[in-house]
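User: tokens in, sequence out, please.
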């Protein structure tokens, strides 16, 4: 029995796809699983979706496969639609500023085009 979607994940341009295509099969499967969790749960645990405190509405989708950690930036549109921006493999404790800035740029681009 499939649970009804609470929100829809939308891929904006090819930012996410470019990142996704480069991943190993196991990582791809974990990303898809995580996106399904986000689409179907009313309250998504911070383990999977977390607001980036220093930003205006930017979130990171958190994916862990084995010892590899990945982050996919996203933001909401009309509260229900999650627009996926860029993704990267996390290698340090702190999310690189350049990755956050790239995501903010994508978010602005999306909002301008809307």
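Assistant: Sequence out:
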């Amino acid at each position: 029995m499939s649970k009804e979607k609470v929100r829809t994940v939308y891929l904006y341009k090819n930012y996410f796809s470019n990142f996704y295509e480069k991943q190993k099969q196991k990582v791809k499967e974990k990303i898809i699983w995580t996106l399904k969790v986000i689409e179907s749960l009313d309250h998504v645990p911070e383990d999977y979706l977390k607001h980036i405190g220093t930003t205006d509405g930017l979130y990171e989708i958190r994916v862990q496969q084995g010892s590899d950690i990945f982050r996919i930036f996203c933001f909401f549109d009309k509260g229900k639609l999650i627009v996926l921006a860029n993704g990267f493999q996390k290698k340090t404790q702190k999310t690189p500023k350049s990755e956050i800035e790239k995501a903010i740029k994508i978010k602005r681009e999306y909002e301008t085009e809307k």
